[in-house]
Every structure is written in C-alpha cells, then in structure tokens.
C-alpha cells in the first residue's frame, strides 16, 4: 500500500487549506455569523473546546480586566521608555511584554499550580502558608505593591462577584480566600491579587467544564494562564506606545536625583 511520508509538523489548532479557515474545527464563517466572543475563540484555539457561556464570558472578562493598569507598572513603563527611544511599535510592545513574569502579571500559572496542589492534597490554608514559607517561596498570586485590605483591588472584587454568581462552584477561590485571611493578618498588602484570583478561578472553571486532572496539569505547565495576561495587557501596552508617539515625547533619561550612586573603588584581588 501507499506509505505516507512522515510530516515535520503536527498542527491541532487550525486548518486553512479549505475555503474557510477552521478554528479548532469550527469554520470561521460560523464564528462570525454566530458572533462568537473573544472568550469563545480562545476556547476553540487554546483549549480546543466550545466553552459554556459563563466560562467564555469569564475569559473575556479577564482580558478586559488586565488590559491596563496605568503607566507606572513594569510593562507599560518599559514600553514607554522604549517608544521614547524612538523604537517602533512592535519593539516597544515586546519590551513591555518581556517584563511579564513571576513578580508582574506572570504569577497566574504559579498561583493556579500552588493553590490547586495544596487544596488537592487536603492541606489547610495554614499549612500552605507555613510550608511555602519554609520552602522560601513567595506564594504566587498573593501581594500587591499598592492594593491592600484598606485599598482593595476593584478588579479582584469584579472577578469574585462574577464567579460567585455565575460559576457552578468556586472551591479553589474559597481556599485562596482562606489563605488570604492568614497573609493579610500579617501585612495588609498580602491580598489575593488579580493574578492569583484569575489563577484559582481558571482552575475552578476548568474543573467545572470537565477537564481531567492531567489536562489541567498540561494547561498550567504550558503557561496558558499567563498567556491571558500577555494577551490582555498587550491592549494597554499598545495604547501607551501609541500615546507616546502621539505626544511626540522625546528620549527619556532617568533623573540623577532618583539614583543612589554607590560606586566604590575596585577591590584589589590576587597578587
Ligand atoms: N507570599 C508570602 N509572603 C509574601 C508574599 C507572598 N506572595 N509577598 C510578599 N511577602 C512578604 C515577604 O516575605 C516580606 O516579609 P518579611 O517582611 O517578613 O520579610 C514582606 O511580605 C514584604 O515583601 P516584599 O517583597 O517587599 O513585598 P512587596 O510589597 O514589595 O511585593 C509583590 C509585592 C512583588 C507583588 C510580592 O508580593 C510578590 O512577589 N508576590 C508574588 C508574585 C505575584 O503574585 N505577583 C503578581 C502581582 S499582581 C500583578 O502583577 C498584575
Ligand atoms: C498590574 O495590573 O499591572 C498590577 O496589578 C501591578 C501594579 O503594580 O499595579
């Protein structure tokens, strides 16, 4: 019989060979005619499924909620400085995106991983806090530079309210809120932050949608949840770059009086 030549690539995302490109098996015409939301398109392309409305709305809500948080945060700041150095839109956007990581915006998968792990191991919130401290790991999804118990993060309130009214269950969120009680008793700014809230709610969503434990492991390990921040925040970073270009802002140089210069004569070593 015929022997099929082995292919160099496998693709399970989309297929553009026909008249209509398929997004995870759904023709683009259907996506447009049935007015799929961005959350539903992400469901098709990233999660390979048609999500229920409450879940695709949640994803879309996350994108809107993380779209921007002002000019002073790492991502926007880097992009603004880059744009003011005369670089193009894509370079400036990428320089902003490169700041997304474990401390800023990229704690979502980590939060999902640790809260899920401790909850699934039937550990208490106290055990989670103590064991993470003993391991010398800051809990991803806990803590914020400016938001605190006294200055709550509206974004987190919006997410919690949505989940409490629309999700079938929120057991990982509930666990994270127990952890938050302990961390905020220590310091007011150790709240469940927007990354943490998205992380635990994603796990609640995936569980309620019937994803298996192995599938959830894979989704988290692949960085899918941080990708929500990357995609959403790109909207805001692009806005800051366009803003600087519109304003024709010149080269930025950081003021000397904001740097503590501590240059010392070199140590003489050897000889
Ligand atoms: N878990 C446990 N303890 C914490 C955490 C945490 N996540 N964050 C801070 N602490 C403790 C520190 O151990 C320290 O305790 P000590 O005084 O006993 O030494 C104290 O709080 C102060 O720590 P700092 O790092 O100075 O806190 P800061 O307010 O500057 O940090 C930050 C804020 C960077 C967000 C930090 O809390 C953190 O790294 N959190 C985890 C990562 C995370 O979730 N990032 C996403 C933030 S939201 C976003 O970017 C969209
Ligand atoms: C953000 O969304 O960029 C933040 O929560 C970080 C910050 O310091 O505001």
UniProtKB/TrEMBL annotation:
GO CC terms, sorted: cytosol
GO biological process, alphabetically ordered: acetyl-CoA biosynthetic process; fatty acid biosynthetic process; tricarboxylic acid cycle
Keyword terms of this UniProt record: ATP-binding, Cytoplasm, Lipid biosynthesis, Lipid metabolism, Magnesium, Metal-binding, Nucleotide-binding, Transferase
GO molecular function list: ATP binding; ATP citrate synthase activity; metal ion binding
Main location as per UniProt: cytoplasm
Subcellular compartments: Cytoplasm
Protein name according to UniProt: ATP-citrate synthase, alpha subunit
Taxonomic source organism: Desulfofervidus auxilii
């Amino acid at each position: 019989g015929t022997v099929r030549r082995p292919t160099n690539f496998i693709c399970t995302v989309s297929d553009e060979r026909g008249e209509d490109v398929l997004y995870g098996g759904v023709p683009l015409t259907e996506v447009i005619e049935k007015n799929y939301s961005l959350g539903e398109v992400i469901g098709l392309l990233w999660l390979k499924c048609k999500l229920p409305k409450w879940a695709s709305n949640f994803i879309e809500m996350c994108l809107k909620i993380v779209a921007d948080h002002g000019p002073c945060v790492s991502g926007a700041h880097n992009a603004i400085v880059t744009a003011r150095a005369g670089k193009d839109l894509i370079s400036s956007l990428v320089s902003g995106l490169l700041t997304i990581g474990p401390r800023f915006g990229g704690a979502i998968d980590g939060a999902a991983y640790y809260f899920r792990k401790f909850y699934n191991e039937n550990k208490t919130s106290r055990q989670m806090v103590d064991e993470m401290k003993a391991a010398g790991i800051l809990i991803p999804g806990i803590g914020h530079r400016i938001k605190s118990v006294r200055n709550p993060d509206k974004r987190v309130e919006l997410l919690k309210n949505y989940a409490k009214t629309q999700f079938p269950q929120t057991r990982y969120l509930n666990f994270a809120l127990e952890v938050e009680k302990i961390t905020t008793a220590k310091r007011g700014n150790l709240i469940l932050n927007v990354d943490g809230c998205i992380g635990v709610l994603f796990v609640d969503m995936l569980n309620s949608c019937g994803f298996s434990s192995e599938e959830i492991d894979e989704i988290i390990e692949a960085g899918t949840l941080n990708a929500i921040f990357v995609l959403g925040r790109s909207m805001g970073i692009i806005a800051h770059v366009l803003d600087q270009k519109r304003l024709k802002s010149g080269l930025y140089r950081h003021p000397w009086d904001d740097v503590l210069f501590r240059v010392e004569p070199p140590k003489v070593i050897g000889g």
